[in-house]
Design a protein that fits this description.
By secondary structure, the protein is an alpha/beta fold. The chain contains 16 helices and six strands. It has a six-stranded mixed β-sheet. Strand 4, helix 6 and strand 5 form a beta-alpha-beta unit. Helix 4 packs across helix 15. The chain starts with a helix and ends in a 6-residue tail after the last helix.
């Protein structure tokens, strides 16, 4: 029972309170901790399991975990990979906890996924981290790399004055809500020549520099744009694992791999159906690329 509660995402403190309030059993945190160590081996097996040969979509992004380090609580990056298979089902492929997020670490994650059986991906969604597209291309050379719209908007507004942020955000809207690449280019040109664009050259430069990795999603039907233009599939996992506790997540302890083990306990069973039209489009792209799909 204790192992099941822990694997389901409850903290040791929650388990201790649950046992005491429901069946009247009092156990120390140290005793519960020893019992939950059994989950680690199972999580390692899950983390190293073989994967499908092809995924239609791969989302790569990081969440922030709070890890207790002695008397301090430090933020750590939980790197998460979510894949959409050719039947339209989302799977969490693995979690990796590191002090900070970086393209070099992501390159190792991509290599590990390839070693576990992922030979190709049709589209990879990621944030605007420098060197990230190159790290992906080094593993899956034929994959289309798509920059998350939300990350791009956030990065492009870093140097915009607070008093102009709402106006600039509204002016950028037509760029990522258009249905075609030509319309997006026209909207970007309109912003560039507008008073706001003239006042914010760094914003325009940010979009220009990321343009080739921004426009791929516009090749898909407009009905899909809102569903596939961001890495919110990763961010939603943060809500998913928070909802399991019905409260804000407490900091993980400093025990080895505790953060990764508990996070994996939340996410192992996370599977969700994807929009049917998307994986039909994925099949069409795969066939055009020469994959023998049925």
């Amino acid at each position: 029972m204790i192992v099941s509660l822990y694997a389901g995402g409850m903290s040791i403190r929650d388990i201790q309170h649950h046992l005491e309030s429901t069946i009247g059993t009092e156990l120390s945190r140290e005793t519960i901790s020893k019992m939950t160590d059994e989950v680690l081996e199972e999580v390692l097996v899950w983390q190293q399991r073989p994967l499908d040969r092809i995924f239609s979509i791969l989302y790569l992004d990081a969440l922030v975990l709070k890890i207790r380090d002695g008397a301090q609580i430090r933020n750590n990056a939980a790197h998460i990979a979510v894949g959409v298979d050719m039947d339209g089902i989302k799977h969490v492929l693995g979690t990796w906890v590191e002090a900070t997020e970086g393209a070099k670490f992501w390159a190792g994650v991509c290599a590990e996924l390839a070693n576990r059986g992922v030979k190709d991906v049709l589209v990879v969604w990621c944030d605007g981290l420098t060197g990230f597209p190159e790290a992906i291309a080094a593993t899956w050379s034929r994959a289309t790399v798509q920059t998350c719209d939300v990350h791009l908007i956030r990065a492009s507004m870093q140097f915009v004055g607070y008093q102009d942020r709402e106006k600039v955000a509204a002016a950028l809207g037509p760029i990522y809500t258009t249905a075609t690449i030509d319309a997006a280019e026209g909207a970007l040109h309109d912003f560039e020549t507008s008073p706001l664009g003239t006042k914010s050259p760094a914003t325009d430069a940010s979009w220009r520099n990321s343009w080739n990795n921004f426009i791929p999603f516009l090749a898909f039907p407009p009905a899909l744009h809102r569903s596939i233009c961001t890495t919110n599939a990763i961010k939603s996992l943060n809500y998913y694992q928070t909802a399991q506790n019905h409260e804000e997540p407490r900091p993980f302890s400093q025990r080895p791999r505790c953060g990764q083990t508990t996070l994996a306990g939340h996410l192992r069973a996370y599977k969700r159906s994807w929009v049917r039209s998307w994986f039909r489009a994925g099949h069409r792209r795969a066939r055009r690329a020469g994959y023998p799909l049925t």
